[in-house]
Fold:
Amino acid sequence: MRKYQKADFPRIKKYMEQLYDFTSSLDDLGRMKRQSGYGGVFTNDLLIKVKETGGVIYVATNVENVVGFVACTLIRPSEKGNLASIRPIKDGRVDKLFVEEDYRDQGVGTELMKTAEDFFKKSGCDLARVEVFIPNTNAHRLYGKLSYEDRVVDMVKRL
Ligand SMILES: CC(C)(COP(=O)(O)OP(=O)(O)OC[C@H]1O[C@@H](n2cnc3c(N)ncnc32)[C@H](O)[C@@H]1OP(=O)(O)O)[C@@H](O)C(=O)NCCC(=O)NCCS
Structure:
């Protein structure tokens, strides 16, 4: 496990594309379809968001290759947010998590999540958040095993 380096960009871009394609494959509304250019734009956006919030990206490696990554962002106290909470809130968010298919079910995802949580604790967070698409039962089960609880449900209705 190590921090992201510039040379990892092509690999993370590929994983961002695979993550989106995987999520699209679960989308029964059929609204998601990756267009050309997606990987570059969204990977750049992610890097900016991680930098701006003081977050970090960790990559999981086998001997020499990257086999997965987790992108951590920090939700920082804002002036408006402070008007709505008992104290300034600083939460950690697991923004993206991906493990290459051949390396799944070996504990890599768990290790990435634990590394993210250690980073959040060191950054002064007392809560970690992660968003999951309900049809993504594998990821949802993994988060449950790691003691994450469902908190917000985004409901949809076909019109
Ligand atoms: C979700 C995802 C990141 C999980 O990564 P992973 O490396 O397979 O996760 P883990 O191996 O830590 O845990 C998965 C399973 O392996 C088991 N496991 C954990 N350590 C293990 C080990 N050392 N040996 C064998 N199995 C192990 C876990 O118990 C878990 O089992 P489960 O089927 O009961 O849930 C991965 O499946 C993935 O990239 N999916 C596609 C993208 C995605 O869904 N990302 C999350 C978006 S919210």
